[in-house]
């Protein structure tokens, strides 16, 4: 055999060996490719989809709520919360995770199963498992992290209300948004907290802030990537397939923008004082800075502590609060409406003077009762023997019903309704708080509407309806805030007052004038005589509000809750059940001090404004100006010592 043939055979042999080696190498690749693309394609498609970057929402810190002098009514403290992401928990691990959570957090396994089913269409939703866990629970969760896929601990701000029930109905509270609400709240996600009442609700958009986000890598192993560092911050963490933490990676992050603080006009010391005055009673007190409409205090009793809604282990207290009777969560200053009784006479007197229906010298004779056109039903005056001949100043001071029966008929319901809206009676004041009710000043249109399905004679407005309205009875209802605004309008020389609780509220300019200076002068004269004697005229029904050294003006109101006939069934007033007793009102103002203040006191079923409400107004005035003078004195002493 020639050398050429031998070389050729050797080359062929080598090519065969190489070919065999290539085939041996290719077969596993083809086999692997078949497994990837055919047999297990669905499995690897799912893993590939999971092995991607996704955004993780970062919640902003909620803004603080502060008093006028910077005291904190609502702020935040760190809270360690436990969240569950159903999509991060492999199906074969669910039972183990459920049992482990039960042993650590006392979370029933059924709850976890419900969440997985509930968020089947949104598997990567963060579900709050438990808020504000103790450090001992956090340690156990971290120790068992590799056995808890889908379970993470994160540090988030938890709302805190340092003053508790003081100002609770003003501040309000927050709690977790529910799934049904998410449909209408596109900027929120499951687990977010939202304002439910008070300032927390009204200024939700300001307080909430703007969420941030970070990008998280989700690995095909299905484990990741969130944990808390030693400072309690949410960080990215990489784990191996056994769940062990590896070195942290860099990641893209946009920080959340914290919410803005809201500074209120509230004087917290005055607020506490007013609330304490109402302890044991149902009612409300409003104190306004008369010239600006700033709310200095708004007390409502009974009250509640908003911390109940954010503190763990308070489920029974929350349930009791929500079911409480009387309802402790209602802000009675704006969300309840009552017959105003005789405080309505101030509005009627001012309107009649302004419209020229009467002058300061106009008199009506009061024999103790009144008949329309001298016939028919006799409308009683509270002073059964009558007041004799009285002018408007005396009628205000001594609260003569007969004078105002005449006045109402002369004005007519149309004018009464028109001016009521101007002043803010029977309509929302626009206070920056939620759930304000409008009250009602009934008129012809209203009566026809509510009786539309009744005979025509029930739809008509009668003179008797006007008589009833003239003393704040019948279907007439107002809120304590509305009556405080009425008082402030008088003190503010007839200019419209816009009540507000945000210290940054911008007053409308120019202000609208409702009553002239001459009208206000006459009304103030009557309200001053109500509280203190003038010349040879004795003080009227509000003398228990007199404060030595301070000029106080005021008006009592006693509003019927049930008919007088029902009262007559009892031997004495003391034996009338409390729920049948009249509501007690007193509106008051101070006109010779700065700042001038307007006050409304309502004591539900207090029986008489003169005895139940006027003394409270006196205490408020004494406290407010004594405290102010003390602060001024302390400031002067401090300046003197400094120099």
Q: What's the gist of this structure?
A:
By secondary structure, this protein is an alpha+beta fold. The longest helix is centred in the first third of the chain and has 37 residues, at 3-39. The protein is elongated.
Major sheet attributes? 5 strands, mixed
CATH homologous superfamily name of the largest domain?
DD-peptidase/beta-lactamase superfamily
How would you describe the oligomerization state of the chains in this entry?
A: single chain
Q: Whole-number average pLDDT? A: 86
Query: Helix/strand/pairing class, anyone?
Result: alpha+beta
Separation, N- and C-terminal Cα atoms: 126 Å
Low-confidence runs:
47-51, 220-225, 227-232, 238-250
State the share of residues found in helices, binned by percent.
25-40%
CATH C-level name of the largest domain: Alpha Beta
Secondary structure elements and pairings:
Blueprint (H helix, E strand, L loop, with lengths): L2 H37 L1 H10 L1 E7 L6 E2 L5 E13 L9 H12 L3 H10 L8 E4 L4 H9 L7 E10 L7 H4 L2 E3 L2 H4 L10 E3 L2 H5 L1 H5 L3 E7 L6 E4 L5 E4 L15 E2 L7 E2 L4 H10 L5 E7 L5 E7 L13 H8 L21 H11 L8 E4 L2 E3 L6 E3 L7 E4 H7 L2 H11 L1 H11 L20 H7 L5 H4 L3 H8 L9 H12 L25 H15 L20 E8 L4 H4 L15 E8 L6 E7 L5 H34 L1
Parallel strand pairs: 2-12
Antiparallel strand pairs: 1-8, 2-3, 3-4, 3-5, 6-7, 8-11, 9-10, 13-14, 13-21, 15-18, 16-17, 19-20, 20-21
Helix pairs in contact: 3-4, 10-22, 12-14, 12-20, 13-20, 14-18
